[in-house]
């Protein structure tokens, strides 16, 4: 039974295997070969900052030195660090509450599924939202429609068609889309919310938190739309260099998720030491201004170099994709890059739409200008 599935995947050059990797700062070793890692989402290059890690450990309070919470937060796992973290972010988003989850996937899956249980709720989802959000819709057996990526006219048309049939309409989008690397039209989404009072906005900042705003509080905050967003999702396994996630929302919805988000209720909570590290990083975000500026400068240069060669690229910021279309072609280019010392695996269907296979470059603040030049020269 499985052999047929595997055969089809292999014939389409779409069979995935796990690479055996050893990590060393911004490099990985694959089969003994040292490669510059361009597949990581460590956008601020914090994960291997030894001084930062030593400072955290040197100042770690005894009450946070737990490597397991040993329980869900609903039972005995609600260590005080969770509430300290939630209170800290709450102060940055006046009028909102914060709820910590184990991961962005757990959060989106269970919060969207929970919202789907609210009677007369419709979801309108950008075609390119993350798989975790789609899975939440499917798990919750939600009423939903998907609209063409960033097509505000198509979205408004769906709103008008279905507006009178539902009490709540929740629009799902990302602030910075994870694969195409483009920005959501947050201004247009907020304008729709102003025109149609039943609308609520659910925005995932997985790839933008840490990299925008002086306090690293994401693109929505940077653009001044934070009061308009009903559900704002931060994840911590990327630029924040930690693990976990949180949802920033109104108090009634925080209470609702505590009672109805199954991944929150039935998961053992993350270890207190992980939550303490996340809080430590957020408190230091102002100090990473130079890293953020360097990241954006590198991205601008990278895109400029690609434009000079007239390549088809995607990306408004530091997630930049070289679109190749064919799976085999993408695999071949990835191998050429690997032979020259760069780890940038091919991204293929179903992660991206069919015939849009690509090399996705995740830039980070630890890169140098000559790294950019070398990649461009290879291509």
The number of distinct helices, counting runs of at least 4 residues, comes to: 14
* Portion in helices: 25-40%
- Can you identify the CATH class of the largest domain? Alpha Beta
Low-confidence stretches: none
Distance separating the two termini: 40 Å
Write out the strand line-up for the largest beta sheet, numbering strands in chain order: 4-10-9-8-7-5-6
Q: Sheet with the most strands? A: 7 strands, mixed
**Helix/strand/pairing category:** alpha/beta
What number is the mean pLDDT? Answer: 93
What Rg is obtained from the alpha carbons, in whole angstroms? 21 Å
Known CATH architecture of the largest domain: 3-Layer(aba) Sandwich
Q: N-to-C SSE series?
A: HEEEHHEHEHEHEHEHEEHHHHEEHEEEH
User: What is the count of β-strands?
Assistant: 15
Whole-number total of structural domains: 2
According to CATH, the homologous superfamily of the largest domain is Type I PLP-dependent aspartate aminotransferase-like (Major domain)
**Morphology:** globular
């Amino acid at each position: 039974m499985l052999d047929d599935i595997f055969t089809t995947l292999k014939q389409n050059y779409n069979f995935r295997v796990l690479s055996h990797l050893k990590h060393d700062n911004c490099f990985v070793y694959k089969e003994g070969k040292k490669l510059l890692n361009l597949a990581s989402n460590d956008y601020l290059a914090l994960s291997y900052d030894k001084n930062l890690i030593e400072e955290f450990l040197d100042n770690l309070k005894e009450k946070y030195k737990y490597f397991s919470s040993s329980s869900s937060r609903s039972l005995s796992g609600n260590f005080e660090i969770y509430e300290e973290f939630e209170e800290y972010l709450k102060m940055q988003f006046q009028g909102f509450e914060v709820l910590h989850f184990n991961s962005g996937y757990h959060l989106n899956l269970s919060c969207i599924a929970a919202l789907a249980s609210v009677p007369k709720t419709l979801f309108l989802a950008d075609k390119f939202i993350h798989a975790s959000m789609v899975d939440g819709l499917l798990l919750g057996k939600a009423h939903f429609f998907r609209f063409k990526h960033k097509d505000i006219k198509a979205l408004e048309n769906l709103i008008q068609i279905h507006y009178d049939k539902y009490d709540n309409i929740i629009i799902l989008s990302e602030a910075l889309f994870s694969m195409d690397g483009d920005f959501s039209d947050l201004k247009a989404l907020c304008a729709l919310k102003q025109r149609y009072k039943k609308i609520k906005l659910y925005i995932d900042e997985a790839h933008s938190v840490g990299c925008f705003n002086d306090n690293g509080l994401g693109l929505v905050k940077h653009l001044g739309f934070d009061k308009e967003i009903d559900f704002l999702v931060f994840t911590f396994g990327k630029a924040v260099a930690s693990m976990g996630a949180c949802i920033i929302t109104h108090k009634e919805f925080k209470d609702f998720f505590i009672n109805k988000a199954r991944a929150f209720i039935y998961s053992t909570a993350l270890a207190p030491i992980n939550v303490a590290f996340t809080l430590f990083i957020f408190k230091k975000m102002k100090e990473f201004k130079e890293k953020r500026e360097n990241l954006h400068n590198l991205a601008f240069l990278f895109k400029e170099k690609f434009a000079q060669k007239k390549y088809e690229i995607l990306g408004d910021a530091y997630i930049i994709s070289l679109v190749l279309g064919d799976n085999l072609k993408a695999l071949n280019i990835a191998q050429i890059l690997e032979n020259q010392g760069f780890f940038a695996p091919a991204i293929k269907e179903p992660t991206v739409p069919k015939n849009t296979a690509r090399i996705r470059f995740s830039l980070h603040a630890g890169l140098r200008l000559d790294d950019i030049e070398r990649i461009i020269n290879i291509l």
